[in-house]
Amino acid sequence: MTDLLTQSEGLHCASLDRRNFLRTGLGGALFLGTVSLTAGLSGCATAPAGRLGAVESRMDARYRFQFLTTDDIELFEALLPAILGSALPEQASARRMAIASTVERIDAGIHKFGPANQKELRQLFDLLNFGLTRATIARVWPAWRNVTTEQADAFLQRWRTSRIGLLNNGYIALTKISNVAFYGHQENWQLSGYPGPPEWAVQALPQFRNI
After folding, report:
1. How far apart are CA 88 and CA 144, in angstroms?
2. What residues are paired with 51 via a beta bridge?
3. What is the 3-state composition of the chain as percent helix, strand, coil, each rounded to the nearest 5?
4. Which of 20, 65, 66, 132 could bridge across to 49 with cysteines, CB 3.0–4.6 Å?
């Protein structure tokens, strides 16, 4: 449950880190920066969640969040069922555990990114967590903890098909991070048809082993 990204996943994240997720341009960067500042001044959570289970009923709280805030955790708890769909277990407790472990791996992956991408993602998450912009730009009215899978899916589809580059790139960032964290985990390789690294690579490159 508390396994971090495998080293191979870390290499994947490192390759993502060499380019900006959002490609905001000057106008988009200024807009996101303003939203992020306003969100912070309004009292939105800005500090990493620390030792907090990604699911309230989870007993194991050994993992310490290093980037995601409590608001970010609720955001991904709402989005992951829409992003991952039938790949998540149907059984309720197994489903909660799969979501919780994926949220932890998202946090661990982002923590390995460079400052530029971390800044962009913080601004994106602040836009989605700040009530005013969540309602007006994401068109999600309830807080993320109260959002249904259908509402989350509708939000994702709006941003996926948006003609506004910032929103379209925001969709790509959210889904890319989520898919890497979920399908990049060894236990989920078979869900994407990936058989795992060949044995010779495992022996030659120990970073393919779980930490």
Report:
1. 19
2. 64
3. 65, 0, 35
4. 65
pTM (two decimals): 0.74
Residue with tokens 């149907």: 90
Structure tokens at 41: 């001044």
**Given the structure tokens 């409590």, which residue do they identify?**
70
The percent of residues in the chain predicted with pLDDT above 70, rounded, is 64
**Token duo for residue 172:** 């790509």
CA–CA gap between residue 195 and residue 86 (Å, rounded) = 19
Chain centre distance of CA 129? 13
- Give 122: exposed, middle or buried? Use CB within 10 Å, 0-12, 13-18, 19+: buried
Number of structural domains found in the chain: 1
Residue span of the structural domain in which 175 resides: 7-208
Q: CA geometry: angle at 134 spanning 86 and 165, to 5°?
A: 80
3-class DSSP assignment, residue 140: coil
Residue 93: exposure state from Cβ atoms within 10 A (0-12, 13-18, ≥19): exposed
Query: What mean pLDDT do residues 161-176 have?
Result: 90
Mean pLDDT rounded to a whole number for the chain? 76
Q: Are residues 109 and 5 in contact, defined by beta-carbon separation less than 8 angstroms?
A: yes
Radius of gyration from C-alpha coordinates of the chain: 17
pLDDT higher than threshold 70 for residue 60: no
Residue 15 inside a domain? The answer is yes
Residue 183 has φ and ψ, to the nearest 5°, of -75, -20
Indicate whether 1 belongs to any domain. no
